[in-house]
Write a sequence for this structure.
């Protein structure tokens, strides 16, 4: 390798390390947002919920910085095919992290409404457990990215099934509460949106893990992601026009 090529390679590595540092900072903020949003609901803590909502701006800012840095890196360093794959994966991971942050913010927004209502027995602790599993899933997906660990990434992908099963159980539980007492409908609807936000966060954590597999192997995972969200079927609505699909970004 010529001296000039070595200089370009080392400059690329330095720039990429700086971008990846921002990715990990963004990931830490998102993980905290997930846990704080669920804790605010469990503890009926409006102040903590407000912290989550305001903190989303920092997550959005980091995504913008990562995209700008990645675009500049491509323009200035003209990365080879394998290096370009790394840069593109970074951009996709930051986009997934930004969406997870949005879902955490959406969860926190509903805390202010729910604290004015009578709690649904067991629901808050169940949602907190689900959020904790999602946070662990995200943490492992990011660890797999840093370590380029395909086995860990594939484990994260398979664990998405567990998140779906938790969501399905909560969905049916909320339906039961609503049928038993119509006064529970409003609270259960808000709780359902929170559960769906958790499920969608799990999907995005899984997408990060899929990016790791692609980054290391150059191929997307062979098997389709396991999904067990059957709620649209329970409602008797076609998937493309389902109630759940319309509510996923609420």
């Amino acid at each position: 390798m010529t001296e000039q090529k070595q200089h370009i390679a080392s400059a690329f590595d330095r720039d990429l390390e700086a971008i990846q540092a921002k990715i990990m900072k963004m990931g830490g903020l998102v993980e905290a947002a997930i846990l704080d949003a669920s804790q605010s609901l469990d503890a009926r803590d409006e102040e903590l919920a407000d912290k989550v909502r305001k903190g989303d701006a920092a997550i959005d800012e980091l995504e913008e910085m990562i995209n700008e840095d990645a675009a500049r890196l491509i323009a200035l360093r003209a990365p080879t095919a394998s290096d370009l794959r790394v840069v593109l994966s970074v951009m996709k991971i930051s986009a997934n992290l930004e969406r997870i942050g949005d879902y955490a913010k959406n969860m926190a927004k509903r805390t202010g409404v729910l604290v004015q209502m009578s709690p649904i027995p067991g629901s808050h602790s169940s949602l907190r457990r689900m959020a904790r599993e999602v946070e662990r899933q995200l943490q492992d997906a990011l660890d797999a990215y840093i370590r380029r660990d395909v086995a860990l990434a594939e484990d994260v992908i398979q664990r998405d099934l567990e998140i779906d099963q938790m969501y399905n159980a909560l969905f049916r539980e909320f339906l039961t509460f609503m049928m038993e007492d119509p006064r529970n409908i409003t609270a259960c609807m808000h709780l359902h949106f929170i559960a769906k936000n958790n499920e969608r966060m799990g999907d995005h954590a899984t997408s990060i893990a899929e990016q790791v597999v692609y980054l290391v192997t150059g191929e997307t995972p062979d098997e389709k992601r396991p999904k067990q969200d059957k709620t649209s079927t329970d409602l008797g609505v076609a998937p493309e026009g389902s109630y759940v699909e319309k509510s996923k970004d609420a």
About this structure: DSSP finds eight helices and no strands in the chain. The longest helix spans residues 3-42. Helices lie at 3-42, 46-77, 81-114, 123-147, 150-180, 185-217, 231-234, 243-247.
